[in-house]
Amino acid sequence: MYRINGKEYPCCTSITMGIIGGKWKSVILFHLMEGPLRYSELKRKMEGVTERTLSLQLKQLEEDRVVRRDVYASKPPLKVEYSLTELGKTLIPLLKSIAKWGEFVAANHSENEVAGPLSKY
């Protein structure tokens, strides 16, 4: 059993999935690989995500220390940028591999084929 940031995980894989798992966390991280983004820029890139969900996912990624939130209040309007931390940057090779596998599945398997064989896993 592993304990990180007050959460318990049964194995190393569950640590990774606990941090990047879910529908939107990996999408956020994927977009932040390119560099810092403001909240509104992230929201535009992520069609279908609600503001509440995006805010919650960003907060969780901050708590897990993979995303940093920088607030620039020197002059109105307030500017907030999100970026990968040094720990978050270590996820880049993993995120690229996940994206590459997703491209492979999208290019080589029809919807019926993916729903059939992969559904048993």
Descriptive report:
The chain has one domain (2-120): Winged helix-like DNA-binding domain superfamily/Winged helix DNA-binding domain (Arc Repressor Mutant, subunit A), CATH 1.10.10.10. The two termini are 24 Å apart. A hairpin with a 2-residue loop joins strand 1 (2-4) and strand 2 (7-9). The protein is an alpha+beta fold. Residues 114-121 have low confidence and may be disordered. It has helices at 12-20, 25-32, 39-45, 51-63, 86-89, 92-108, 111-115; strands at 2-4, 7-9, 37-38, 67-72, 79-84. It has a 3-stranded antiparallel sheet with strand order 3-5-4. A two-stranded antiparallel ribbon has the order 1-2. The protein contains 7 helices and 5 strands, in the order ββααβααββααα.
Q: Could you provide a short overview of the structure?
A:
By secondary structure, the protein is of the alpha+beta class. It has seven helices and five strands.
